[in-house]
Amino acid sequence: MKYQIGEICEIVSGSTPKTSIAEYWDGNVKWITPAELDDDSYVIQDTVRKITELGVKKTGLTILPKGTVLFSSRAPIGKVAIAGCDMYCNQGFKNLICSDVISNKYLYWYLKSKTTYLNSLGRGATFKELSKKILAEVELEVPHIKRQNEIVQKLERLCSIKKKRLEQLQKLDELIQARFVEMFGDPVVNDKGWKIDTVEKLCKEIYGGGTPSKSHPEYYEDGNIPWVSSKDMKTDVLNDSQIKINQLGVDNSTARMVPVNSVIMVIRSGILKHTLPVAINVVPITVNQDLKVFIPNERLLTRFLAVQFKMHEKDILSGVRAVTADNIEFNSLKQRKLIVPPIELQQEFADFAHQVNKSKVEIQQALEKTQLLFDSLMQQYFG
C-alpha cells in the first residue's frame, strides 16, 4: 500500500543553542549534526557534542526518541541513520518518528535507496534544502510490517557479510604492512638507516591522466580501454573500470595509456579525508586527471613502491589541502624521501605480498558478488 511519508511519520527538526552562551554547552545531553553521519552510519549511540538541559529548554528543542530515523535535509541532503538513544539535533535535519505502520529500519533502507531522488527535490540558491512539506509528500510503497521485517533482515545479513569481507581485507593489509615493518622498519623515519632518495628520482616516469570530452560521445562508444577514476580505486589491483573509452578518446585527450605494473595513486578526491588509494594495474589502462601514474626505475620494485606509499599514508594525508577539492600537493609528493633497500630484499617482500594478495583477490571477488546481490535487492524492494 502506498503512503506519503507525512501520513505515517512525524517530521521533527532541530536547532543550535547559542554558541555564545557557555551554559548551553558541554553538558550531558546528546546533540547531533549531519557531519557526524557517513555512508556507514546505521544506529547512532552517541554524539560528538553535548548540550545542557538549560540549552534544551532555552532553545525549545524537541526530543528525538530512540528509534527516530535521522535524515539530513541540507548540506548534504540524504544522510540517514537511526537514533540508538534519545537525543536532539541541529537545524540540518528533518527527522522521522515512525508510526506503527512502518518499521524505522525499513524506512532507513528506503531513504538510503533514494538519495539521488531526494536530492533532486531540494530547493535553494546558495545550497539545496529539502523542506518539511516536500518530504512529507514523498510517496513510498509500505508492505505489511512482517514483510518489512523480512526485507530488513535480508539487507542486514548482506551488510554483515560485506562488513566481514572488508574486515578480512583490512587484516590482510595489516599483515602486509607488519611484514614491511619487520623487514624494513618505519620508512618515514628510516630507523634502519637504508639509502633514501626522492620519489621523482626513483621513477622513470610520473604523469597524470585526462578526460576525453563528454561532448564527444564517439570517444566512449564501444569503449574497451579502462578509464580509471577515484571511484574505481577500491582495490589495490586494477583490472577494470566503471567507464571505458576507445582509442579515439585516447588520441583526442590528455589520457595516456598506462603500462601494466604501474603504481596508481589518487591525488585529488574527497576520499583523501579518510584514506590514500594506491593500486597496481594488471591490464593496460588510462586514468583521469585526479590520479597520478608512477613507473618506478630499476631501483624500486612496483609492489615495494605501492606498499611504501601506503606506509607513508598518514604523513602524506596530513598535508592534504582543500582548494576546490581535497588534493595532495604534487610537487611535495615528488620530493618525498623513500627508502631504497637492496633489490633482493624488496623481491623477498614482494613475493610475500604477492601470496597475500592472492587471498585478497578471492575475498574482493566475494565482496563484489555480495555487493551485486545487495544492489539487486535494493532495486527489487525499493525500485
Topology:
Blueprint: E1 2-4, H1 5-8, E2 9-12, E3 25-32, E4 43-44, E5 49-51, H2 53-59, E6 69-73, E7 77-83, E8 88-89, E9 95-98, H3 104-113, H4 115-120, H5 132-136, E10 139-141, H6 145-184, E11 196-198, E12 203-208, E13 225-228, E14 237-238, E15 243-245, H7 247-251, E16 263-266, E17 278-281, E18 286-287, E19 291-296, H8 302-311, H9 313-317, E20 321-322, E21 326-327, H10 330-334, E22 337-339, H11 343-382
Parallel strand pairs: 3-8, 4-7, 13-18, 14-17
Antiparallel strand pairs: 1-10, 2-9, 3-5, 6-7, 11-22, 12-19, 13-15, 16-17, 16-19, 20-21
General description of the model:
This protein is 36% helix and 21% strand. The strands form eight sheets. A five-stranded mixed β-sheet has the order 12-19-16-17-14, covered by helices on one side. The relative contact order is 0.11. It is built from eleven helices and 22 strands. With 383 residues, it is α+β, with helices and mostly antiparallel strands. The two termini are 15 Å apart. The protein is globular and about 65 Å long. A hairpin with a 3-residue loop joins strand 20 and strand 21. Helix 6 runs antiparallel to helix 11. It has helices at 5-8, 53-59, 104-113, 115-120, 132-136, 145-184, 247-251, 302-311, 313-317, 330-334, 343-382; strands at residues 2-4, 9-12, 25-32, 43-44, 49-51, 69-73, 77-83, 88-89, 95-98, 139-141, 196-198, 203-208, 225-228, 237-238, 243-245, 263-266, 278-281, 286-287, 291-296, 321-322, 326-327, 337-339.
